[in-house]
Design brief:
468 residues; alpha/beta; Rossmann fold; Alpha-Beta Plaits; 4 domains; six-stranded parallel β-sheet; 29% helix
C-alpha cells in the first residue's frame, strides 16, 4: 500500500514513524520545510522524503502521487490540507483522502460530512481535539492512566497504573475483582512492570499481588465507569482546582470544557505569551489567566499552584512540560498530567513522578490506522505503547460461514487474543456471558490483542469473501 503524508511536522513525522515498521506499506512524506525533511530523513526510516509544497500539483505529480492509495494531509495549515485533498481527488483520483482540520470555524458547519460532497475529504482528523478529550476524561476520572472508548462510546477500556499511593498497591487480583464485581466491569488483563506484554486475567492467580508500575486493564459499560472509580476510592475533592500550563489550542479547549463542568470550581491557565494572555482573558471568562513561565518555581508558588488538585502541562515544548510537571509535583500537587510528543521523552518520564504522560501520536495514529488494515475494523486503538491493541469489528454478511449463527468457540482465536465485549443492539455483554452469545449481523465485537503482531490473524478471521 502506498501512503503519502503531506506535512513533516510533529503529526506527519509521528504517523510516518508509526507506519514505518509495516513492510506492506510504502510511505512518502512531502514538506516545504527543509529542516523538517532533514530531521525525518535522519531517523533512518524506510521511507521517501520530498522537499516541496504539498498542495502544488506539480510537486505531487513528481513525487508519484498517482500511485497513492491514501493521502494524509497533515500540514500546519487547514487550508493547505483542504486544497491538497481536492487536488488529489480531482487531478490524481486518489481513492482515500484524510485531512487534519483544527479550526472550529470549519468543523461547526459540518462541511466535511459524507452527506456534503462539496469537499473531497473522506475523513477529518483533529489531533488537538483528541488530546483535549483525553485530558478531560483523565481529569474527570482520576486514577486512570488511559481511557479508550468503543462501540460508539458505550464501552470503555480503562488502564490503571499502580502507584505507591494508589489503593491498588499491594492488593491482589482477587481483591480487585471482588471490589468491582458488583458493577458491570471486568478485569481483562494485567501487565507486570517487568513484562513486555500483558497476561490475561484467566491466566493469572487470584493471589497475584499488584506492585508499582503494574498496569491493569478493565473493560466496562461506560454508564458505570464513574461508579467503578468511586469503588476504587478515586474521586474529586469537594473543591477542585485545576491548573493548566499552556494556553494554546489544547489548553484553551480543555479550560473551556472544564469551566462548563460544574465539578471544577477554579480553572487557572498559565501562558508565557502576553498577546495570547490578552486573548485568553476574553475567551476564558470565569477562569484565571496568568502571564508567565510555567518552569518558574516562584511563579507557581506565589500563585498557589501547590493548592491545586490537578496540574496539566500542555505547552508546545516537551522540555517545558516535563520540567513544570516535576516542579508541580515537588511543591505538592497530587495529580500531574503532561503532554509529551517525543517518544524518547516518553520512555524517560515513565520513571519520574509525573502521574500520566499523554502522547498525541497514539490518538492520531489510531484515527488513521484502521484505513490501512485489510479488514478495516471500526476502531483500533493501541495500548501498552502500541505493543498491544484493542480492536472493534462489526459482524457482516460475507464473512466466514461459521461467524453468523456461531459463537465464541467457532472462532479460532490466537492465544494472545480475547473477546472482551459484544454490543448487540443496545445491549452490552461482558464476562462469562460472552461464551453463550450467538453472533448476528451488525453485532460489534471487541477484542483485546496482547501482542500487536497478531492483529493480522484476527483480521484474517473477519475478511469478507470476494463477491463472485
Amino acid at each position: 500500500m502506498n501512503i503519502f503524508i503531506l506535512g513533516a511536522g510533529q503529526v506527519g513525522s509521528s504517523i510516518a514513524t508509526f507506519l514505518d515498521p509495516d513492510p506492506t506499506i510504502n510511505v512518502t512524506v512531502i514538506d516545504n520545510d527543509a529542516r523538517s525533511i532533514d530531521l525525518l530523513s535522519g531517523r533512518n526510516l524506510d521511507l521517501k522524503t520530498v522537499l516541496g509544497n504539498a498542495s502544488h500539483p506539480s510537486v505531487l505529480q513528481d513525487a508519484g502521487v498517482e500511485d497513492a492509495e491514501i493521502v494524509l494531509a497533515v500540514t500546519g495549515s487547514d487550508e493547505a490540507n483542504i486544497v491538497a485533498c481536492q487536488i488529489c481527488y480531482e487531478v490524481f483520483s486518489t481513492p482515500m483522502r484524510i485531512a487534519r482540520i483544527r479550526s472550529d470555524q470549519y468543523q461547526r458547519y459540518d462541511l466535511f460530512s459524507k452527506d456534503n460532497p462539496a469537499f473531497a475529504i473522506d475523513e477529518v482528523i483533529n489531533p488537538e481535539g483528541a488530546v483535549t478529550q483525553q485530558f478531560y476524561q483523565l481529569i474527570k476520572n482520576q486514577g486512570a492512566s488511559e481511557i479508550l472508548q468503543f462501540c460508539e462510546g458505550v464501552v470503555e477500556v480503562v488502564t490503571f497504573r499502580t502507584t505507591p499511593e494508589s489503593i491498588l498497591f499491594g492488593k491482589t487480583i482477587g481483591w480487585l475483582k471482588n471490589r468491582i464485581e458488583m458493577l458491570y466491569a471486568n478485569i481483562v488483563g494485567v501487565r507486570k512492570s517487568n513484562d513486555r506484554y500483558p497476561s490475561f486475567y484467566s491466566d493469572l492467580s487470584q493471589d497475584t499481588t499488584l506492585q508499582v508500575d503494574d498496569e491493569i486493564y478493565v473493560v466496562c459499560d461506560t454508564r458505570v465507569a464513574r461508579s467503578m472509580f468511586l469503588a476504587l476510592n478515586y474521586q474529586l475533592n469537594a473543591t477542585s482546582k485545576v491548573v493548566i500550563a499552556g494556553g494554546g489550542h489544547i489548553g484553551e479547549g480543555l479550560a473551556i470544557k472544564l469551566r462548563d463542568e460544574s465539578t471544577f470550581n477554579q480553572i487557572t491557565v498559565i501562558e508565557r505569551d502576553p498577546a495570547r494572555c490578552q486573548y485568553l482573558e476574553k475567551s476564558l471568562s470565569n477562569c484565571v489567566v496568568i502571564q508567565g513561565d510555567a518552569t518558574d518555581k516562584n511563579l507557581l508558588e506565589s500563585n498557589y499552584v501547590d493548592k491545586a488538585n490537578i496540574y496539566c502541562a500542555i505547552t508546545d515544548d516537551d522540555e517545558v512540560n516535563i520540567m513544570s510537571s516535576l516542579l508541580a509535583k515537588q511543591i505538592g500537587v497530587s495529580h500531574v498530567l503532561s503532554l509529551i510528543k517525543k517518544q524518547d521523552y516518553l520512555d524517560i518520564v515513565a520513571n519520574t513522578a509525573i502521574d500520566v504522560p499523554i502522547s498525541p501520536q497514539q490518538s492520531t495514529a489510531s484515527a488513521i490506522f484502521r484505513h490501512v488494515r485489510e479488514v478495516s475494523p471500526d476502531v483500533i486503538q493501541g495500548i501498552n505503547d502500541n505493543l498491544s491493541q484493542v480492536m472493534e469489528i462489526t459482524v457482516k454478511a460475507g464473512q466466514r460461514e461459521d461467524i453468523i449463527g456461531g459463537n465464541l468457540y467457532a472462532i479460532p482465536l490466537p492465544v494472545t487474543v480475547q473477546l472482551i465485549a459484544i454490543r448487540k443492539g443496545q445491549e452490552i455483554i461482558l464476562g462469562d456471558a460472552l461464551a453463550n452469545v450467538i453472533f448476528e449481523e451488525w453485532d460489534r465485537l471487541l477484542f483485546f490483542i496482547s501482542n500487536v503482531n497478531d492483529v493480522a490473524k484476527v483480521e484474517s478471521l473477519f475478511r469478507l469473501n470476494p463477491v463472485v
